[in-house]
Amino acid sequence: MLKIAVLAGKGGVKKSSLSRTLAARLVARGMNTVGLDTDVDQASFARWMQRRVNNGIEPTFPVTADVKANWIRTKLDDMNYDAAVIDGAAYASRDTLAIAEVVDLTIIPTGYSVDDIESAIRVGKALLEGGIKRRNILIAFWSVLESTSQHRDRLAFIQAQGFNVTAGYVPLKPTYSTAMDFGQALTEVSAAGLRTTARVFIDEIIQRAIEVKTDG
Ligand SMILES: Nc1ncnc2c1ncn2[C@@H]1O[C@H](COP(=O)(O)OP(=O)(O)O)[C@@H](O)[C@H]1O
Ligand SMILES: [Mg+2]
């Protein structure tokens, strides 16, 4: 089972949006996928799926709410899925490491702000100190205000800290926000250009997860 977790040290960096889109894309690529929502307070992955079901958007897939790190560590492997996407809580805790230990890839979403970047680096370093390997961590630019110079600057900064980071980014767009409201993934928006942007970005992440898993 391919296991990907989206974890962060702060709220609002769009963990749930990335989780939803990743899971929807895995399903579209033919993988039997489950979403696991560990955010007890928000349950926004599970709520989004409810909107998706209510609005008749296909395909649907199972999203389990209120999932505990211990369940992920002990029971997930018994489930008959090709892939699992784990949406993290709004803050870092012991569970962050407990989950990162059992997944193929941990994604840390960030914008270009110093607040976001510093938080992402902090979480990444905490994972390294906890014994997670660099290759199992990927920092991902998500919902950024487009700026070529900021992108170049932040990319170089993160790489200088020794972390893997997505080459591309997902921009902040009203179309994407409306899609999330409606129960769609970013890879499902009707605007072809934005749909392609999201697909290329997500496929890069999936490719990386598959490579990490295959290399053991
Ligand atoms: N690329 C984007 N462009 C515009 N809005 C976005 C984008 N990604 C996410 N959002 C909006 O941000 C909201 C909150 O994001 P969410 O994924 O729930 O954050 P978190 O899980 O980190 O708290 C989403 O409901 C969606 O409307
Ligand atoms: Mg969330």
Mean pLDDT: 96
What form results from the Cα inertia axes? Answer: globular
> How many distinct beta strands?
7
Mind summarizing the main beta sheet?
7 strands, parallel
Summed up:
Helix content is 46%, strand content 18%.
Would you mind describing this structure in some detail?
With 216 residues, this protein is of the alpha/beta class. The chain has one domain: Rossmann fold, CATH 3.40.50.300. It contains 8 helices and 7 strands, in the order E-H-E-H-E-H-E-H-E-H-E-H-E-H-H. It has a 7-stranded parallel sheet, with helices on both faces. Helix 5 links the parallel strand 5 and strand 6. Helix 1 crosses helix 2 (44-54) and helix 1 crosses helix 8 (192-214). The longest helix has 23 residues, at 192-214. It starts with a strand and ends with a helix. The protein binds adenosine-5'-diphosphate and magnesium ion (MG). Residues 15-16, 39, 42, 44 line the site of magnesium ion.
